[in-house]
Structures are given as C-alpha cells and as structure tokens.
Amino acid sequence: MTQESILIVEDDPVVAKVIEEGLLKLGFRISGSATNGKDALSMTAGTNPDLILMDINLKGPIDGIETARTINSRYRIPIVYLTGLSDQATLSRALDTAPYGYIVKPFDLNTLSITIRLALNERRINRELEDKCVWLQNTVQVLNEGIIVVDQHLRVIFENSAAEKMTGLASREASMKRAGEVLTFHDPISEKPFRYNLEPVLHNGIITITQSNSLLVSKDGARTLIRDSIAIPLKNGRGVTTGAAVILYPKAEGVHPGIKPDSTIRGGTTTFDITAFHQQGERQGEPDFQNDPEKCYDYGNHLMAVRRYEDAIAAYNMTIAINNIHYRAWYAKGTALEKLERNNEALEAYNQALSIHGTNPHILRAKGNLLKKMGEDGEAAKCFSTADLYTK
C-alpha cells in the first residue's frame, strides 16, 4: 500500500521533530519539513504532498494562514492547522481558508492520527465528487438538448453549449441574467412572444412545459423550433427546491410535427437520459421509494424531463397511490397524458388536481389550453378567467 506523504510546516524544530517521529510511527511518509512560508511553498511545489500540517504562527513575512491561502489557490492539497492560539479572531481567519482540520497545541498522537485520517478521507470523497462533477459537466456540454439551470431567484447559473447556440448568449453573458432575458419564446402559430413561466416550478414544485413546436428566438434573431421544453424543480439534500432545470429539445430537421418522439414509447431514451438521474446517485433497478410520495413524484419529474411519458405516468400513479391528494402529481400526470394526446384522461387528471387545489392558476390555465385544443372554447375561456382572478 502506498504511504500518504505529509509536509510539516512548523518553525519550532523540537515540535517539528516530535511530529515527524509520531507520523512515522503512524505509518505516514514525510515529504519534507519547512520552518517558514516561503520554504513551505517551495516544498509543496517540489514534493506535492498528500496533506500539509501547517503551524499558524509562522515567523517571517507570511504566517501559516497566508501560506495556506496561497497553496489553496494553486493546488488541491488538504491543510490541517497546528496552533497554540485558540482565540476567535485566529479561528475566523483560519476558517476562511477552508482547512481540513484544526489542532490546538499541546496535542497527543491519537488526536493527530484521527485528525489526519479524517482529513485524508474527506479529501478522497471530495475528489471523487469533483471528478463526477467534471464528468457530468463535460457530458452535458456535448448533448444536443439545451439545458439551462436557474436559481431560486430565476437567475441563470448554468447554460450548456447547445443552449448557448439556441439563445445566442454565451454562458458568461447569460450568467445571473433573469431567465426571461435569456429565454424568448414565440407562439408557433401567431408568432407572438410569450413568457416561460418558471415561478410554479420554484414556488410550488410543479413542472412546467411550453407548447410543442414553439419558437425560441436568440439574441441575434435566429429562431430554433423547440419540439418540447420541460422545466423541473431541483432540490438539495434536504428536499428543498433551490432552482429549476429547463430542458430544450430542438426539433430534428425533416421530422413532421405530428410524429411523436420515440422517447414517448415505454422504455425509450434520449441523450439526456445519461445525466438526468446523476444527482440522485447511481441506481440499481427501480428506485426504492419506501412509501415516500415526494421521492416518487421527483422520480416522475425526471422521467418527464427525458420525455419518458409512460414511465412518468406510472411514477405519478405510485405517488397518488401513496397520497391521493397530491395535487402536483395529478397535474403532472395530466401533463404527461396530454403529451401522449390522451386528452380525455388528461382532462380528468387536471380536474382531480383542481378538486384538491381549485385556486391554482397554473393548473387552471393548463386545463384551459387543453379545452381549447379540444374545441371547447367557452369552457376554456372560463378557466382562463378564473386563473386571472387567482393570479397574484
């Protein structure tokens, strides 16, 4: 087994020797020992240690904290501080450099061992996560589908290459702009502009879609025919919605608008499939929801995002079986059914959602649009009028 190497940065030679002997007993390899910040930077560059033990109160022009700050800007090496100081001011400065540990002198060998091993384990986990993030970002960049991520304030925080081409805005230009400034949609028939309403995604956890074959107009006026666009909520580890992902599926050239995408067939896939569940972790077979309607609902939303509508309906049905007043699942089921042109079933699902939450303007408008599509203009007008009453 390869021994992890540790660089000791300590200006007291007696303390440094004691630490070195202790580390050797613990099975670590010593990559070097420095007594000041300048030597520490030079040894770090020359030996690339697995971890650095850094005394905060170094003598010379730069102390241990400033040395650590410089190392952090150049390398991905965990740093554990050693210090005889435990005041709040020192601790605050040290924490600003995101150390992997903080040991107050005097300390024993057991404390040193535990702190170092925890730091090395955290470094391993962090590097695995960083590698996965790099893989995911590189994968997302080569997809044909446009992907735009917004935060809880509707500000764009990510845009892949395909979305850059569709919007005419480079990622750095789109960054922190409001979603409405980046996404300009036109109705495919009237060509009138309309706003992609993402508020329900963020505030209610409701998926939103645009009309099929809508036009996305870029900054320079170029137009892309978007076959489907679906926005889903993004949640943190605590289940709190912190943003939304907008997936833009451009219409392939030479495909008639009336032809359904292959991905509506049960088990069908799109290129977005390879990334859609990455944030949920690797899955073996069907997810275990453990009677958790929110996990089941989130799974349905991800299936919607990759246009696996039949599978999404099954997930929403599972959600409803667990909690039959889950109005968002009823609404999402209706949306998936409408995508499959099962309009009567979709209308029934919308009605079920409204029987639970009758004042939701987003669901009322969805029902109105479906009724209009079905030729029920009078009933559609009533839905739109009621939705306007409940719109804040």
Notes on the structure:
The chain is α/β, with parallel strands linked by helices and 392 residues long. It has 3 domains: 5-133, Response regulator (Rossmann fold, 3-Layer(aba) Sandwich); 144-258, PAS domain (Beta-Lactamase, 2-Layer Sandwich), CATH 3.30.450; 260-357, Alpha Horseshoe (Serine Threonine Protein Phosphatase 5, Tetratricopeptide repeat). The protein has helices spanning 13-25, 37-47, 64-74, 88-95, 109-141, 161-167, 171-174, 179-182, 199-204, 273-276, 293-305, 309-322, 327-339, 343-356, 361-373, 377-390, and strands spanning 5-9, 29-34, 51-55, 79-83, 101-104, 146-151, 156-159, 185-186, 193-194, 208-209, 214-217, 223-235, 241-250. Strands 6, 7, 8, 9, 10, 11, 12 and 13 form an 8-stranded antiparallel β-sheet that branches. The longest helix is centred in the first third of the chain and has 33 residues, at 109-141. It is elongated, with a radius of gyration of 28 Å. Mean pLDDT is 87; it is low at 254-285.
Topology:
Elements: E1 5-9, H1 13-25, E2 29-34, H2 37-47, E3 51-55, H3 64-74, E4 79-83, H4 88-95, E5 101-104, H5 109-141, E6 146-151, E7 156-159, H6 161-167, H7 171-174, H8 179-182, E8 185-186, E9 193-194, H9 199-204, E10 208-209, E11 214-217, E12 223-235, E13 241-250, H10 273-276, H11 293-305, H12 309-322, H13 327-339, H14 343-356, H15 361-373, H16 377-390
Helix pairs in contact: 2-3, 11-12, 11-13, 12-13, 13-14, 14-15, 15-16
Brief synopsis:
By secondary structure, this protein is of the alpha/beta class. It folds into 3 domains: 5-133, 3-Layer(aba) Sandwich (Rossmann fold); 144-258, PAS domain (Beta-Lactamase), CATH 3.30.450.20; 260-357, Serine Threonine Protein Phosphatase 5, Tetratricopeptide repeat.
